[in-house]
Amino acid sequence: MKKSKSSKKISENGSSNKPDCDDFLIVGIGASAGGIQALKVFFENVPADSGAAYVVILHLSPDHESRLAEVLQTAAQISVTQVTERVKVEPDHVFVVPPNLSLSMADGHIVVSPINTIEERRAPVDIFFRTLAETHHEQAVCVVLSGTGADGSMGLKRVKENGGVVFVQNPREAEYNDMARNAIATNLIDEVLNVAEIPAKIIAYKENRRTVAIPAEQESLPEELQKALRDIFTQLRVSTGHDFTNYKRPTVLRRIERRINVRNLSGIPEYAAFLREQPEEVQSLLKDLLISVTNFFRDKTAFEALENDIIPRIVHDKRAGDQIRVWVAGCATGEEAYSIAMMIAEHTLGGGGAPEVQIFATDMDEAAIATAHDGFYTLNDAADVSPERLRRFFTKEDDGYRVRRELREMVLFAHHNVLKDPPFSHLDLATCRNMLIYLNSAAQKRAMETFHFALNPGSFLFLGSSESINGAIDLFAPLVKEHNIFQSRNVEPRVPRPAANLPTPTMRFEPSQTTLKTNQEQENRALERLSYADLHQQLLEQFAPPSVVVNQEYEIIHLSERAGRFMQIPGGEPSNNLLKVIRPELRLELRTALYQAVQKRINVEAKNLPLKMDGRVEIINILVRPVLRPDDTARGFILVLFEKTEDAPEESEVVFAAHEPVARQLEDELMRVKAQLHSSIEQYETQTEELKASNEELQAMNEELRSSGEELETGKEELQSINEELVTVNQELKIKIEELSQSNSDFQNLMASTDIGTIFLDHNLRVKMFTPTMRNIINLLPSDLGRPLTDITTQFAYENLHDDCEFVLERLQAVEREIQTSDDRWLLMRVLPYRTAAYQMSGVVLTFLDITTRKQAEESLRFQAHLLNTVEQAAIATDLDGTVIYW
User: Fold this and answer.
1) Which of 86, 500, 541, 747 is most buried, most CB within 10 Å of its CB?
2) Which residue(s) pair with 53 in the sheet?
3) CA dist 54 → 2, 46, 461 (Å)
4) Could you give the CA distance from residue 652 to residue 658 in angstroms, rounded to a whole number?
5) Full 3-state SS string of 106-165
């Protein structure tokens, strides 16, 4: 794809937020079982001048002797080095880490050390990906190849959090696909590819980073590119419902830039078109922007301070019947919430009179909330949890751990936006770690006010290592400064108001060159930097009537200074809803006007409304102006203006002028009431229709649930029937096993008790089994099982034993011979075919019967006969009964 001119301009204008082009990518590759073949294919496709460094780590036993470097060197076109000591990382090199060493990176060097912790032994790939992300940030690339288990799935989250990219081998191609499947399950990977395609993708990403760069200040972009960026934000908001106006602009732009590079596109307009053509890319961009990444007890020293210093103080002040309330904002996939729950549970569970614990864990990422609510984590996700806590708070399931019910019941997960949704209240502890760093100063201030409003006086706020309370020093006091733990000051809470989320207009002032002065230049530059709120307050306040900006829920977004005189804060819980704070005299007409403006999308005016102000009656017109342009990024907001027409006479004076008939006044009032009644009827009919539709949907859902219940009941009965069948089969198998065991015992006793030496050979004439008597005939040992008969020495004075066995295998006829041993023993050998129960030929059986005594008797008889035959006299021999046996 050719690079557009616009992309070149971006590169020229945007070097401020790009890494030095001389910096090279560090590619971390993790694998385990079956990974060697995948690594060979990977490096066969890495060119000699790729310009990246590669670090390989396998999840193997530390006792395993690795020769991986030698194997990879046969396939790679670049140098392969096995790391045994500190070494500098250089491009176009492969660094292989032995399985008995732990790997970290510092100052551009690979540092190896002995494995000392259970985390390093359990998840070496994850540990490496973490250190790679923390040291090289956007230059980090991680690749997950074939392997068993979930190693790598936790570390890749940290790579994405720091702006790196993640590629995973296609599970269908991997010899063992567990590592790939667990990586894909995080929903954070950039692409799934065949291993041979990954090197080319990395090189394309590297080259694209040199070309595409978005400057941190959006206003420095050409108008065409600004329009494309607005298009991207609009598509993101329409498709996902998330508005990232309150996020730090450089952070958002870097994430967009990363997606452009990953997709190998040439610029912002091309990416905006790509979003329209590929709707699934919107979700990928959303994942990059939200980055729902965390892990158990992240920053251990900070959690130790929380556990040792803060939680005991919270628990100490609580009694039976009290409640410990905690809010974990930005909880991601729930590890942080469960970490705090475990620490509190260790102080409360099992003790008498313990308080109730309620932890609210919230996040904007619904997929992350679903994972947290499920409470299942892989072995690698749980690598940071101590074995004692794993045993107490988790149950082992398949390849991971599930949070026990008693801990899960302490945590309530919910989808929630800290900046817009109502906060929780009466909290003892609030945590917001690694979320504020992505928000602009206005949103951070709003968040601080929200947390102060939600916390009890003297309660605690726990922030991330890179966050602070700047702008809220009057609300919080540092408590454990090195770990960012603060205490809420006992001051009047500020009413939390939504952070400004309207677009910042681009204003250009072009005074005449002849009259341009230095002070005018400064004034124009200052005006160009004004925010929407500054313009609203300084310009509209001067030239326009008092006004308020609200959203579709009538929540106040911003108001001008003089608009406050038309509002009145009622008693009770504070609210920023305009209809609740407007003066009662204007509420009914304003409600009607807002409803009509939103429903009909028209401008609405409510005229001649009397309002008593400072002892005088003023006549007010309310003008409601919804944003109607579909391409405007402020769509959905409503402008409400309060226009003063004329002063009414003092209350002590006559109410109506003499020249104006009372009937005219009453008629106008009647018309106004009719209009309000008509509007109320329309609202009622609309709500009735909505309720009717909702009722029909509920009825349909009820029918579906009933049908599902019946199906589940049928399935339950089928499962019960299958279970009964399995029990029956299991019982039959148990009986068969007992019978087989008995038969085996009988056979073993038979073999041990017989004096007939027997040896069983397979069809290759290898030893399968022999009786104990055979040890006295042939030099057999238990280790000889499986050896060919020809490899075993015998004492036979007979050399055709192998030929006899071959004859029996071929002809299936028995062979019987008398053979003599070297120690003058005689054996009767029978060679018989071995047939299975199916009467199939499976080998040979040799039996040996000692006939030495018989042979000796026969020899003695022959000798006696020979002796008698030499005597020259007649002789006759009889037995004791007189029967002639020889003559």
Assistant:
1) 500
2) 26
3) 29, 10, 42
4) 15
5) ECCEEEEEECCCHHHHHCHHHHHHHHHHHHHHHHEEEEECCECCCCCCCHHHHHHHCCCE
Distance CA 206, CA 199 (A): 11
Would you say 101 and 117 are in contact if contact means Cβ atoms under 8 Å apart?
no
Report which of 246, 244, 245, 243 is spatially closest to residue 443, judged by C-alpha positions: 246
Q: Does the pLDDT at position 8 exceed 50?
A: no
Total Cβ atoms within 10 A of residue 111: 16
CA distance 883 to 887: 11
Closest alpha carbon to 316 in 340, 346, 348, 293: 348
- Residues pairing with 458 in the sheet: none
pLDDT tens for 472-504 read 777 888 888 888 899 888 777 665 554 444 333
HSE-CB for 359 with a 13 A CA cutoff: 26
376 contacts 397 by C-beta, under 8 angstroms:
yes
Distance CA 171, CA 181 (A): 6
pLDDT in tens, 772-819: 888 777 777 878 888 888 877 777 878 888 888 888 888 888 888 888
Element (H, E) at 449: helix 441-454
Kind of pairing between the strands at 93-97 and 79-82: parallel
Beta-carbon contacts of residue 299 (< 8 Å; ≥ 6 apart): 433, 464, 465, 483
DSSP string, 32-73: -TTHHHHHHHHHHTS-TT---EEEEEE---TTS---HHHHHH
Which of 426, 413, 470, 433 lies closest to 452, judged by CA? Answer: 426
Q: Which pLDDT band, with edges at 50, 70 and 90, does 428 fall under?
A: very high
C-alpha span between 67 and 74 (Å, rounded): 12
Q: How many CB atoms lie within 10 A of CB 555?
A: 15
Report whether 211 contacts 264 (CB < 8 A): no
**What confidence category does residue 97 fall into, taking pLDDT thresholds of 50, 70 and 90?**
confident
Average pLDDT taken over every residue of the chain:
78
- Amino acid in position 526: A
What are phi and psi for residue 552, nearest 5 degrees?
A: -70, -20
**Which of 367, 173, 348, 214 shows the shortest CA–CA distance to 287?**
367
Phi/psi for 220 (5° steps) reads -80, -5
CB burial readout 73-82, b (16+ within 10 A) else e: bebbebebeb
**How far apart, in Å, are the Cα atoms of 886 and each of 781, 864, 875, 883?**
48, 11, 8, 9
Residue type, 140: A
> What is the residue type of 647?
D
Dist. CA 156–CA 142, nearest whole Å: 7
Q: Where are the alpha helices (H) located in 241-354, listed in sequence order?
A: 249-262, 268-277, 280-290, 300-305, 311-316, 335-348
Q: How far apart are CA 569 and CA 495, in angstroms?
A: 11
